[in-house]
Amino acid sequence: MLSAKVTxxxxxxxxIVEEYEKVLIVGKKxxxxxxxxxxxxxFLKDILDDEMGKGPIRLLLYILDRLxxxxxxxxxxxxEVVSDLRIHKTTFYKWLRVLLRRxxxxxxxxxxxxxxxxxxxxxxxxKVVDF
Length: 131
Known about the structure:
Blueprint: E1 2-9, E2 16-25, E3 31-39, H1 41-49, H2 54-64, E4 73-75, H3 78-85, H4 89-101, E5 105-109, E6 112-115, E7 120-128
Antiparallel strand pairs: 1-2, 3-7, 4-6, 5-6
């Protein structure tokens, strides 16, 4: 038997949802599965040095959150993006053109795009919790 402090976070915002001071764990050690997006520092520096404005960066962050696992491809359905980001469709296409022109993304086929190499990757990590 193990006793530990457990904190549960909202995966979208990172905010603490619940905290438990003493939790009794019976049986095997628990596993924690957590999605992540790794952003390469060179790419991050390029984004921060680029004076493209916060709109295209906002779309880029939206894209990073929707990357396919272990891939640089993603789907952008205009109606979904407009609804999720609460922007007008013309704004979406304006931001998309900026990202395409500057080489951050490239179009593969209709509604499917790819991030340039050495930008970011989405993955999963599973970890055994040691107490």
